[in-house]
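Much of what follows relies on a compact textual record of a protein's fold. Think of the row as the fold of the chain written in a discrete alphabet. An example makes this concrete, so a full record is given next.


***
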Amino acid sequence: MHKERKHLEDVNTLVFDLLSKVEKNRQKELAEALKKIGALSEGQKKIVSDLTSKLVGKIFQPVIRNIQYAASNNEEKTLEVVTKLFMLNNN
């Protein structure tokens, strides 16, 4: 049981690290885009921010589901590939 809990914690950490990295990049790119666009109202900035957030969510939702599936089926190689693919050891 302890091993299963550790495995679940590792997977949760993997998902957290992935989403944190994606969000950090989204925020950076959003800031750069808003600078280039120029004068926008706060409402317009929120629309652009919400758009990027929704896009990221839609793109990464299946990735997260596949990570969870791989974890529940002990597909360690898949989890290793995700870690390497998204460079999660090199934050």
